[in-house]
Design a protein that fits this description.
Length: 77
Amino acid sequence: MSPPTQDPQRLQRRRIQAGLNKRELAALAAISKSYMGRLESGEGNASPRVLKRLAETLDCDIADLMPPEPDTVAGAV
């Protein structure tokens, strides 16, 4: 299985901050509750289209749902 395209923890954090449960976010983003659960557990990968709908629903940028960029300057002070 390939690594998730979205960051499951960031997705869950944004959902909770929005005051939504998985079922509510899934309905608003037009995806199934089980798919939403797989995205938050890291077992599923969101397509670009789904990431866009999630970001719009959560009022954030797609980048806010993605894994953080690795530090490109390792050891920099």
